[in-house]
Automatic annotation (TrEMBL):
Organism from which the protein derives: Arthrobacter bussei
SUPFAM superfamilies recorded: Nucleotidylyl transferase (SSF52374)
Protein name according to UniProt: Tryptophan--tRNA ligase
GO cellular component annotations of the record: cytosol
Primary localization class, coarse: cytoplasm
Amino acid sequence: RQRILSGMQPSAGSLHLGNYLGALVHWVRLQETHDAVFFIPDLHAITVPQDPAELMQRTRTTAAQYIAAGVDPDRATLFVQSQVPEHAQLAWVLNCLTGFGEASRMTQFKDKASKQGTDSASVGLFTYPILQAADILLYQPDGVPVGEDQRQHVELSRDLAQRFNTRFGETFVVPQPFIQKETAKIYDLQNPTAKMSKSAPSPAGLVNLLDDPKVTTKRIKSAVTDAGTEIRFDREEKPGISNLLAIFSSLSGRSIAELEDEYAGRMYGHLKVDLADVVAETLTPIRNRAEELLSDPAELDRLLAKGAAKARELAAPTLAEVYARVGFLPAA
Ligand code: TYM
């Protein structure tokens, strides 16, 4: 069996529809046919300041949403990054193989650092993609299911795998990004040319998995739409309607062409009302199940600790091989 690996930052309480459609849905599908490794990258979360109590809660909330959306902890390996020290250990080795200029060219770093002011951005934010490469390479996965915004980071992990293999001998599998074209980028409802993101200036364009359905319905109904009246998929001319159609299509399993036919001659408002229903039908059970899981945090913590033990069994041999290859003296 081929292996896949992926993770989502616990930096907001709730995941949003971009995370769900861009990644989580595909994880759940792929775990049926692949050996799957899913984790919560809490080490990545602290690259920007976090409130400790909140971080702990958000890590649990993120795990609960994975499971509520269908990640099966018996089938997949599900864990929290900080509980598997091999991530930080491999990251150090990879830091030493990455050029300063190469790291400086990572677009997410440039975006985030320019928002914070480059001087106050942490060094952790700078090396963030290298820690991500360590997350990936430790488990020797064949594929990394993510949205479009993670493509450059997966590319870096490929470059580092190849560089290590060339310099020290065949060690790492070189992973492929698994990016599903139709859902690779879900856009903000208020600003349909920007990706849906938890760091958007206003939450009005976000559909959060854990929000009250009333809030979600209101946000969908107030989504920015385009000039004209025609319901047609056209990213250039009609980014707002196209985003709604893409979301509708992926949630309902119906093709965009089918939806265009159904809504021919009807108004934007009709599409929005029906989409709000489809979203509520999808998210309500996820929200309920997540709440149920969060009502017993001790059980959730136990499950994650078990996952971490499983993960360490997979990660330790890779790290041991890396340490030996770079010339570290054996510890035992
Ligand atoms: P994060 O937490 O920003 O996003 C989690 C996943 O959701 C996808 N995504 C989207 N997809 C479509 N449309 C959107 N608007 C949208 N917004 C987010 C992301 O592409 C991602 O797949 N650096 C990673 C976390 C990470 C990781 C890893 C991922 C750490 N280590 C190892 C894979 C492998 C991140 O911040 O994703």
